Amino acid sequence: MVRTPSAKQPISLTPVLPGQRSSSGPGRRPLTELVGREEVLERICEILDADNVRLLTLTGPGGIGKTRIALEVAFRLESDYAHGVWFVPLAPVLDAEHVLPAVAQVVGTRAMGDVPVADALASALRERHMLLVLDNFEHVVDAAAPWLAGLVAGCPRLTVLVTSRAALNVSGERRYSIPPLSAPAQGSVSVSTDSAAVRLFVTRAVAARHDFGLDASNAGAIGDICHQLDGIPLAIELAAARINVLSPKDILGRLPDRLALLADGDRDLPSRHQTMRGCIAWSHDLLSEPEQWLFRRLSVFVGGFTLDAAESIGREPGLRSTNGEIVDVLASLVDHSLIRHEASGSGEPRFWMLETIRQFGLERLAVHGEEDQARDAHAAWCLRLGENAEIGLEGGEQVRWFNRIQAEHPNIHSVFIWLFGQERIEDAADLGLRLICFRMLRGGNREFRPYQEAMLAHSRLAGPVLARGKALVAMAPVLLGVGDTQASLVASREAASILRNHGERGYESMALGSMGIALLASDDLAGATAMFEESIALGREESVVRSVSAGLGSLGIIAWIQGRMDDALELQEQALRVARDGQNTSLISEAIGHIGDMAFGRGDYDQAESLFRESMILITALGNKRDMPYTSLSLAKIARIRGDYATARGHINDALTVAREVGDLEEIAQASMASGRLASMLGQPVDAVRALRQSIAAFEEWGSESGLAGCLDVYATVAIRTRDVTSAARMIGAADAARARIGIARTEGPQQREHLERMSAVRSALGEAAFLVAYDAGRTMALDQAVADALAFEPSVAARNQDLPGAAVTLSPRELEVLRLMADGLTNREISAALCISNRTATSHASNVLGKLGLDSRTAAVAFAIRNGLA
Predict the structure, then answer these.
(1) Per residue, what are the HEC states of 751-798?
(2) Which of 83-97, 112-126, 290-304, 573-587 is predicted least confidently?
(3) Integer Cα distance of 495 and 514 in angstroms
(4) Residue 18: pLDDT above 70?
(5) b/e for 705-720, b at 16 or more Cβ within 10 A?
(6) Least confident residue range of 203-212, 290-299, 376-385, 817-826
(7) φ and ψ at 85, to 5 degrees?
(8) How far from the centroid of its chain's Cα atoms is residue 865's Cα?
(9) What is the distance between the alpha carbons of residues 212 and 215, in angstroms, rounded to a whole number?
(10) For residues 823 and 862, is the Cβ–Cβ distance under 8 A?
């Protein structure tokens, strides 16, 4: 039992700590280098130099490096204090009664008669200008902290630096929490010794095996080791010491049982620092029973928790703590450095354990036979969260709820696995469905798929039970996202039937909407229209805002691709009204983006850009990864039309990055096609066909004939610019045939103009008769054959690209025509009449010609055309 030091205890002349000599310094420097702590050391020295800081406590969990940092501070500041720096190690002091004698012995205080120790120390230090370092204070905090506060108050020139896993909580205390070492992100592809954690691992590994080094074969594993060990120096050192028998990959593979792995530290270290288990146990054993109990309970949380979640664990039936008690105990665990906390984006405090500490807590939970009870409480909290989230994710506080679920995603994932493992299939299906909106927009479908497939294969879901219907609704968008359109259609059709029979009409409307999306992706416009209309009607009956707004928007898309422009705009405006009435940010952004598409199609680029940017602001606020690629590509189209090719490339790259991150096959295909189109415009045909090949692969996996037709259009442009006009005519014919068969039109103004330019260029080059032969051959060709021919066209591109002179390769077919007419002496107005285009468009083409050729006058352009045989 820890006892308060006696104020009347005389100082014993017998050394309390055998072998500890009195000295005015911290002793010998440690033999190992202090790695990655320069900023921390500078900050601590800066704090100690402040006028109002006399008592500084370095806090942090065991193994974070408090003692080593305090020693280095002592060495650095030794000459800054007139009476030196005095270092007192308190770990060997097992009884609080011996704290004062230990300090007195080190600083050389002598007893005079019956003068109490506390008074003798205060008298001896009152006039001294010195730094007193008290190391490992945590186990004597309750008893010795009040004495220390009094000592500092009575000694105006004394500064005290304390290291402790627990804060002192006394007047005048300033705290500095020692941070972990910087570590690479999980899965980082660029791991180097610029990371302090990696540098420490490599340094200690070399000490264990002289021929060890960081290289491409082990860098990824070392980075992940340092990340998973939370940058805790002691844990990293213990892991690195294993390098004499294990490879970094082997060490990484054993981290799930890290407490067994992280053992056998250096023999000259204190016993509590020779294993991570012993290091954490030192802190754990200082806790009261209620603190230990809550610590164990909270270890089930993965990735952190809120105060509300901690209180929820304590409110479970049969448990002992009230909310007020839990707050107090939680605060104590924070003070003991076993739990960390910070303000979240919403301002609500969020708490978490370093993973190694959490693993220790789980061990203790199992030892006490409390794991099932704690995990059941964790699951109950998560299911309640899911119920609230289903409403919150679709309403006026959508942004806040998306951020909340993002923060709790590791907990939700853990609970989902627990429910499935406990045969609570119905609860797992319910949780999966309630968070469907989050996964669709934040991109969690790929991670979710294997668990959902396992659940659907469970014997309890073999028949048409409600849980199966819910699981199928949740599965349909997952399948669609990876391009398995037919499987998505089958899943949503079965889900609609099951949910209808169980009277779950709201969820049925969602299933019907998923059927419509799958049919639209398969270019079945009539079937998709019927499903969306049914989904909208049912959604209105059940007040399902997403079914109504998204359904109207999808009908607007169908009207648009069929060329019914007025109907399309009216449907999108209806979708926007429904979304705004429901205060649904994601649906509002979606409808605004589609209305922007309409403006772009009719050539109102200023309005289109304004709408796209408005949509992107909402998408960014929501963290909506599903719609971000589409809107980025829309902004890329605006930039491309305006000749700002660098900005267009940036938007396309943004779209590709996010689409690949979330595995969105459709947007990967669209972004790759946009990349090919831009490369073609810039006179980079090899890059263009490379991007188009990626686009075709994605569209084929997606099953989109309309997407493949779009790729053929861009391939035709590349063929024209590389002088293979016969191939271009066949590709145009094949693309037109595919569009006619599906029933879709080229609806955007720029798309129509590009098509007319292609047709004009090919007709001009081949003559009408030869053009019709090649074009009709393409129209009668099967789409898969046309695509195969386009892919085979790639090897000839590089050679044909040499036919056009230099910068002329960058000109579009229309711009080449404009250049030739300029060389014939025509003005912009005459060029507009000759080509049946507006004067403004002719002027724009002439300006583009000068810009792409790097010329500053029409005269120079004419000379370029003549010299290069273009006129």
Answers:
(1) HHHHHHHHHHHHHHHHCHHHHHHHHHHHHCCCHHHHHHHHHHCHHHHH
(2) 112-126
(3) 10
(4) no
(5) bbbbbbbbbbbbbbbb
(6) 817-826
(7) -115, 130
(8) 51
(9) 9
(10) yes
Task: Give Cα 434 to chain centroid, integer Å.
Answer: 22
d(CA 832, CA 841): 8
- With a CB cutoff of 8 Å and minimum separation 6, the contacts of 738 are 705, 706, 708, 709, 712, 783, 786
Q: How far is Cα 763 from Cα 772, in angstroms, rounded to an integer?
A: 9
Of 695, 700, 667, residue with least CA distance to 443: 667
Closest-CA residue to 5 (of 122, 118, 163):
118
Listed in sequence order, the residues at least 6 apart from 665 whose beta carbon sits closer than 8 Å to its beta carbon are: 481, 482, 483, 698, 701, 702
Q: What six digits make up the tokens of 503?
A: 């009277």
Indicate the helix (H) or strand (E) that contains 105. Answer: helix 99-107
Three-state SS at 131: strand
Look at 18-22, 165-169, 443-447 and tell me which has the smallest mean pLDDT: 18-22
DSSP 610-665: HHHHHHHHHHHHHT-TTTHHHHHHHHHHHHHHTT-HHHHHHHHHHHHHHHHHHT-H
Q: How many residues does the chain have?
A: 871
Main-chain phi, psi angles of 88, to 5 degrees: -120, 105
pLDDT-derived band at 335, boundaries 50, 70, 90: very high
Residue 787 is predicted with a pLDDT of 92
- pLDDT (0 to 100) of residue 809: 60
User: Mean pLDDT score of the chain, rounded to an integer?
Assistant: 87
With a CB cutoff of 8 Å and minimum separation 6, the contacts of 522 are 485, 486, 489, 703, 704
CA distance 426 to 763: 64
DSSP 810: G
- CA dist., res. 41 & res. 49, Å (int): 12
Sheet of strand 349-352: strand arrangement: 305-306, 349-352, 340-343
- What are the angstrom distances between the C-alpha of 370 and each of 13, 293, 294, 296, 411? 50, 10, 11, 9, 18
Q: What is the CA radius of gyration of the chain?
A: 36
Cα torsion 555, 557, 559, 563 to 10°: value is 180
**What is the amino acid identity at position 94?**
L
Q: How far apart are the first and last CA of the chain?
A: 101
DSSP 111: -
d(CA 773, CA 727): 11
**CA 472 to each of CA 464, 468, 487, 512: distance values in angstroms, whole numbers, following the listed order:** 11, 6, 11, 12
* pLDDT at residue 330 greater than cutoff 50: yes
Consecutive H or E run containing 352: strand 349-352
Q: Is residue 56 within a helix (H) or strand (E), and if so which, with residue range?
A: strand 55-59
Cβ–Cβ under 8 Å, residues 752 and 739: no
Cα–Cα distance for residue pair 241/369, rounded to 1 Å: 33
Tens of pLDDT, residue by residue over 82-96, are 999 999 999 888 787
Collapsed DSSP state (helix, strand, coil) of residue 104: helix
Cβ distance 56 to 132 under 8 Å? no
Q: What is the pTM of this model?
A: 0.79
Residue 267: pLDDT band by 50, 70, 90 thresholds? low
Name the CA dihedral angle for 215, 218, 222, 225, rounded to a multiple of 10 degrees. Answer: 180
Helix and strand element counts for the chain (H, E): 42, 8
Selection from 155, 23, 20, 131 nearest residue 79 by Cα? 131
Q: What's the angle, vertex CA 176, arms to CA 344 and CA 180, rounded to 5?
A: 65
